[in-house]
Amino acid sequence: MNILDDAVRILKRYPLCNHCLGRLYAKLGRGILNEVRGLCIKTLLAMEYHRRMQTIEKDYCSELKMLAKNSGEPISALYRMLCADEVSIERCFICKNTLSRELYESIARRVIEVLRRYGAKSFIIGVLLDPEVKDSEIEVLSTVGFKYSESIRNEVKREVGKLVRDLGSFTPDFTNPDLTAVVSLTGDVIAIVNPVYICGVYWKRGRNISQSTWHSGGVRKYPYSIEEFFNERLKELFAAERIVIHVSGREDVDARMLGTGRPLVIEVKNPLKRSASLNELNEALRGTTVEALLHEKTSRKAVKLLKEGLAKKCKIYKALVLCDRLLTDESLRELNEFFTDVTVSQLTPSRILGRKRERLRRRKVYEVRARLISGRIYEALIKAEGGLYVKELISGDRGRTNPSFTSLLNAPNTCIELDVIGVCDA
Ligand SMILES: [Zn+2]
């Protein structure tokens, strides 16, 4: 069956506008608008019927009337002329004659307004369809076949998208757009502002600072948090609802984070502005107790990578330790020698057992460099696999962590101060 016979078969059954008829053949030909496809088919049909009526002795008027009623111009004009009769034209079965260039242009202008309002540079178009339109489309496609067709959703998305790109010089971005504009055929545009993701590192030079703000029984547990720091410094620059931080691991609240800093991704929720430069942001993030440095804008994917990469990270800690007995350089040398590439077994630390269920965890200690400060106090640099509980490595947690500094030195050891001084790739 050729395209014209096929179109006659369809148009005898359903009234279709140029867009909706052309869309049934969207996969045929390149660089042609669907409405042009539809109009071309209708034009050729008008010409073909005109030819037949001039050369074949048969009355085509009733057939032509049916086609005119369901397809409008130019077949309706031909019918009026050749059959000297009026015909009223039906509304398109699928879109009820709503689809038009003018509609696409007016939607595109609204999308551009919205993009400008939110300072968005990249976008993606979503389409919200009336259920009736969807059902009609499914009925037509399932009746006439859909070998070459595309969906109405696709057409609206593409045509509006092209106009927004060309009229407003915004960039379509299918993976990480600044804004999703959900449009409907009534011309409404709903903006879904996507978060801004930026990766970087933070340093924590004070103690008793938690990562996120903790509340326990309505009372905050620690005076300050890294999350608060970011919200205080950056929320206004983005005119955002709030800032959430995604961090690779977590040091203890009383441990400092020094040295290389700890990698994180910040997620700025509902930003009304997104034009602040990295320089401006980093200027705002300078600090003494807490400080951060942002490296580059990124996407949601970076959050997943950050969490997945955690297992592969190794950490370097600096601990100040108190031992219950007097130590010598010799005993610390033994400690250093023993903790070289040693696997440590740890049952969930008793200090967090209420919050986490009991599990056995095995982590490697790559290297320990302990140095005596005075009699019972020493400082230890510990390089270990991410996820090792360092305080328990030192104390032994009453035998729940094994081996430990306590088991090796044959006397209870307590971590007095802990700093993370490096996060590196293992
Ligand atoms: Zn239509």
In short:
The protein has helices spanning 3-13, 18-23, 34-55, 61-71, 75-83, 101-117, 131-144, 152-168, 226-238, 278-284, 300-309, 329-338, 390-395, 405-409; strands at 122-128, 171-172, 179-184, 189-193, 196-204, 209-210, 215-216, 219-220, 224-225, 242-247, 255-269, 290-298, 313-323, 342-347, 360-374, 377-385, 401-402, 413-425. With 426 residues, it is an alpha+beta fold.
What brief labels describe this structure?
426 residues; alpha+beta; THUMP fold; Alpha-Beta Plaits; 4 domains; ten-stranded mixed β-sheet; four-stranded mixed β-sheet; 14 helices; binds zinc ion
What report would you give on this structure?
- The protein has helices at 3-13, 18-23, 34-55, 61-71, 75-83, 101-117, 131-144, 152-168, 226-238, 278-284, 300-309, 329-338, 390-395, 405-409; strands at 122-128, 171-172, 179-184, 189-193, 196-204, 209-210, 215-216, 219-220, 224-225, 242-247, 255-269, 290-298, 313-323, 342-347, 360-374, 377-385, 401-402, 413-425.
- It is an alpha+beta fold.
- The chain folds into four domains: 3-83, no CATH class; 101-192, 2-Layer Sandwich (THUMP fold); 196-298, Alpha-Beta Plaits (2-Layer Sandwich); 313-425, Alpha-Beta Plaits.
- Strands 5, 10, 11, 12, 13, 14, 15, 16, 17 and 18 form a ten-stranded mixed β-sheet that branches. The chain has a four-stranded mixed β-sheet with strand order 2-1-3-4.
- Helix 4 packs antiparallel against helix 5.
- The protein starts with a helix and ends with a strand.
- The mean pLDDT is 92.
- The chain binds zinc ion.
- Zinc ion binds at residues 16-17, 19-20, 92, 94-95, 99.
